[in-house]
Amino acid sequence: MVENHSLGAVELEPDVVVMDVAMPKANGLEAISAMRRGGVKSKILVLTMYSEEQYLMQVLRRGGNGYVLKRSADTELMQAIRTVHAGGVFLYPSAARLLVGDRDSDDGENAGLDLLTGREREVLKLTVEGYTNQEIANQLIISVKTVDTYRSRIMEKLNLRHRSELVRYALRKGLLAPS
Fold this sequence. Notes:
By secondary structure, the chain is α/β, with parallel strands linked by helices. The radius of gyration is 19 Å and the shape is elongated. The protein has a 4-stranded parallel sheet with strand order 1-2-3-4. It contains 10 helices and 4 strands.
């Protein structure tokens, strides 16, 4: 069944194929393998909700050229398509760190902070200072949903899962003085 689904890519010869790991009638990982076995030269970009390393590594091993999380698609999808179309590999920030190892150590280096935009740094600082989403939104004149989006991106870029990890990170980086 997967072989039949990849035929369209052979016939149409798209520059970039955007697909998911989980699809209704096919396993995306198997589809990537089938497309490569079938001689599909298209670049393959996976757009998925799965951030687990196991999927990322399988996509790359099977011939995928990029990996974007759906929660970041609004800002990263076009860049990812352009990158893979140009022959590059696109990985969301915390995935890239998985592959090269976490080089954001406690030696004073600010590599993780360098990944953040100015607005993300503002949201990070206010978050770790204990402001609520509503207070941050009011202070920065943005919506509460936008604050949530920024915080999700910050946590993804810094490879953090909980608000408490944000606070510990900020303390290590000198963004927040211990009380």
